[in-house]
Amino acid sequence: MTISPDLEAQILRYYHVERWHMNTIARQLHVHHGTVARVLRQAGLPRPGPPARPSAIDPYLPFILETLQKFPTLTAARLYAMVVERGYRGRPDHFRHLISLHRPRPPAEAYLRLRTLPGEQAQVDWAHFGHLAIGRARRALMAFVMVLSYSRSIYLRFFLGARLQNFLRGHVGAFTAWSGVPRVLLYDNLKSAVLERVGDAIRFHPELLAFAAHHRFEPRPVAVARGNEKGRVERAIRYARDAFFAARTYRDLDDLNAQAAAWCAGQAAERPCPDEPALRVRQAFAHEQSQLLALPEHAFPVIERVEVAAAKTPYVRFDLNDYSIPHTHVRRLLVVLAEPERVRIVDGATVLAEHPRSYDKGACIELPAHIEALVTTKRAARRHRATHRLAHAVPASVALLARAAERGHNLGSITAALGRLLDRYGATELQIAIETALAQDVPHPNAVRLALERRREARREPPPVAVALPAYVAARDVAVAPHRLEPYDQLTEPHHDDD
Predict the structure, then answer these.
(1) Please, is 329 exposed, middle or buried when counting C-beta atoms within 10 Å of its C-beta (0-12, 13-18, 19+)?
(2) What is the Cα–Cα distance from 220 to 202, expressed in whole angstroms?
(3) What CATH architecture applies to the domain 121-289?
(4) How many Cα atoms are found within 13 Å in the side-chain-facing hemisphere of 470?
């Protein structure tokens, strides 16, 4: 704890002049007693009163200091066991407190102030800013931050997730806003940049290398656990949290990004430049912009490519949502090409479907044409099954359907009507009735029904009743042969016992 010189003077006066105890000083001045003890030690004044009593640990201090010199990270519990074996009889909790006073502290590391040339370097990092609720989904709100090391110009943009494609889109947005590209981009060891690292051997993400080659900059990761090497972007993130995001309200992601762009061009650009205190960040950037590399002539395609497997339903799952495809491409391996605003589903070079992208969870995004085509196919399949049944049971139905098609009648309704007549009157009667209707050149179910009714009335039979029974009930209706009654007559005849 750092205290003011006035408070330090009060501690020394109360202790050496007023003869207050350390705990009394700490209680009256509202500071920790350890702070009071530290001030007294740093003052180097003799302690008032009788000299301090010798401690039971004093005979073992040379051994303890020598051991800690060789093994600085040795635990107090292990050191206590070693000292007990040598005759120490103190308590372990008090021993742990004494060891904390004598354990060697690592020397404080000093850092050089790094200066860069205009247009030479930029630093990049992700920052987590909570979550954003979209429908039933809870998306991570990630901020992409890039800062120019010389002018400290900040580019800030928010994304739903830290995917590599969002990482590259952040680069493109920064380069476009600055109308140029820095020569070196400094990264932390994040997965979007570094896939694997063993010492100085680094395996970059291949898509990031292709992106860097297209824009002609050098990707350079900092050393492991050396966040100070990219302190400019760390401070920029902290500045964005405090000066921009804190207590800010926004409607959606687009509104938040619009406010972030206005903040970068306004308040963030008007702050003093740390390397050039006489200049504002806007003025320093105007000097640095001419030193940036020119933008490439053609844009780098930043598209998320994911292979998906279509199941038996005409949908593919991508990013927590279902997107419809033509029913002719089910049970195949397809490819989803996703951009921030749209999703395309392709099979090789053929684009099967294009949908607006949804960031909800469990949503079903479909084109009506896909579902209508599947329904039409299913209905046609049912009609073909009924036609096949009719043709097999009543051969004359094929000719009737052919003539009805020539006259433009609805084959679906004709097939359904003939199927019902087949269930009610049977195949033999329907065959004769259809032949009668064809002889009269009237290929219509009404003519067939009229012929069936005339034949029934001529036979003086009651109208048939169609009763659809379940299969297991119909199977019970089997013909049962009655028993002969002659064996029962023998029971009434008199019996003569043999002598």
Answers:
(1) middle
(2) 10
(3) 2-Layer Sandwich (3.30)
(4) 2
Helix (H, G, I), strand (E, B) or coil at 154: strand
133 touches 231 (CB < 8 A): no
Q: Which tokens is 17 given?
A: 């002049």
Nearest-5° Cα angle at 49, 46 to 53: 90
- Secondary structure percentages of the chain, helix, strand, coil, to 5: 45, 20, 35
Strand duo 184-187 + 121-134: pairing: parallel
Provide the token pair at 377: 């196919």
Which amino acid is residue 407, in one-letter code? Answer: R
Q: Report angle CA 137, 142, 145 to the nearest 5 degrees.
A: 165
Task: Tell me whether residue 141 is exposed, middle or buried, using C-beta atoms within 10 angstroms of its C-beta: 0 to 12, 13 to 18, 19 or more.
Answer: middle
By the 8 A CB rule, do 280 and 269 touch?
yes
- Write out the two tokens for 441: 């050149």
d(CA 52, CA 54): 6
DSSP per position, 202-247: EEE-HHHHHHHHHHT-EEEEPPTT-GGGGHHHHHHHHHHIIIIITT
C-alpha distances in Å from residue 378, one per residue of 51, 364, 365, 409: 101, 21, 21, 20
Both tokens of 159, joined, read 């994304």
Helix (H, G, I), strand (E, B) or coil at 421: helix
Helix (H) or strand (E) holding 131, with range, is strand 121-134
User: In whole angstroms, what is the distance from residue 40 CA to residue 34 CA?
Assistant: 10
For the domain 1-48, what is the CATH code?
1.10.10
The model carries a pTM of: 0.63
Give the span between the Cα atoms of 14 and 36, in whole angstroms.
Answer: 11
- DSSP per-residue codes, 162-191: --HHHHHHHHHHHHHHHTSB-SEEEE-S-T
User: For residue 499, what pLDDT band results from cuts at 50, 70 and 90?
Assistant: very low
The amino acid at residue 126 is W
pLDDT digits (tens, 9 = 90+) for 327-341: 999 999 999 999 999
> 234-275: per-residue pLDDT in tens?
999 999 999 999 999 999 999 999 999 999 999 999 999 988
Give me the numbers of helices (H) and strands (E) for the chain, helices first please. Answer: 18, 14
Tokens of 184: 């070196």
